């Protein structure tokens, strides 16, 4: 059991079950933002909580479970507003469920600040932890699987046929899935708000770059 869960005892256990039920997506159609993603984000957040005893685990738990309760496709015109919409919906659901009223603002802020596209800076340690935990799931082996799953849904090619490393062209991760590693994922370690998150992010990025190099060796470079 993560230390965060052990420290909170019964209250965290009670809310974890209730939050898991609330977090179920309306259609379940996005395998990159499903219940397993929520579970991984909470697991990562719980490990980060171990280094931040000043953080409120219940706020982090709720925000991890409900951060994608409104999930819009990448091409949707309101994509950048999705985290704000999720925060508003989560606040209503939690209030109706009797969640501690003094923690609602903290949960809502952590949810709205988690999103890369929203560009909202986290102001609390709980928001920092949730943001880091969500971004960690975009890195490493699971992050790679999510990358290609999403690229397939968007109709992207695996990689540029002749210049997969983008040596003589601008990166274009909407057209070529492999470009997403350098276009976005490589920027994530520098955005981490916790020291532990930064260490894990660098390790997972190293793994992604090793994959990229192996992929390119097999793919060929157009020569």
Q: Could you provide a short overview of the structure?
A:
The protein has helices at about 5-10, 10-20, 35-50, 55-65, 80-95, 105-115, 125-135, 140-155, 180-185, 195-220.
Written description of the protein model:
The protein has 223 residues and is mainly alpha-helical. It has helices spanning 3-8, 10-22, 35-49, 57-66, 82-96, 104-113, 125-136, 140-154, 179-183, 195-219.
Helical region count? 10
Largest sheet: none
| Series of secondary-structure elements, N-terminal to C-terminal | HHHHHHHHHH
Whole-number mean pLDDT: 87
The counted number of beta strands is 0
Helix content: 55-70%
Distance between the termini: 52 Å
Low-confidence stretches: none
Silhouette: elongated
What is the SS-derived class?
mainly alpha
**How big a fraction of the residues is strand?**
under 5%
CA radius of gyration: 18 Å
């Amino acid at each position: 059991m993560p230390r965060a869960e052990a420290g909170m005892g019964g209250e965290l256990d009670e809310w974890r079950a209730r939050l898991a039920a609330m977090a179920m997506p309306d259609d379940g159609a996005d395998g990159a933002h499903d219940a397993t993603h929520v579970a991984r984000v909470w697991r990562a957040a719980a490990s980060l909580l171990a280094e931040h005893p000043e953080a409120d685990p219940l706020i982090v738990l709720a925000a991890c479970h409900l951060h994608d309760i409104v999930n819009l496709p990448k091409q949707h015109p309101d994509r950048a507003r999705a985290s704000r919409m999720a925060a508003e919906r989560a606040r209503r659901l939690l209030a109706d469920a009797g969640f501690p009223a003094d923690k609602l603002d903290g949960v809502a802020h952590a949810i709205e600040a988690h999103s890369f596209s929203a560009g909202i800076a986290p102001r609390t340690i709980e928001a920092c932890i949730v943001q880091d935990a969500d971004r960690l799931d975009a890195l490493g082996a699971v992050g790679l699987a999510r990358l290609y799953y999403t690229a397939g849904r968007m109709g992207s090619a695996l990689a540029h046929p002749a210049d997969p490393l983008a040596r003589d062209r601008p990166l274009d991760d909407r057209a070529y899935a492999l470009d997403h590693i350098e276009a976005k994922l490589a920027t994530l370690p520098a955005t981490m708000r916790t020291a532990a998150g930064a260490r894990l992010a660098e390790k997972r990025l190293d793994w992604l770059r090793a994959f990229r190099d192996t992929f390119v060796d097999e793919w060929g470079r157009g020569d």
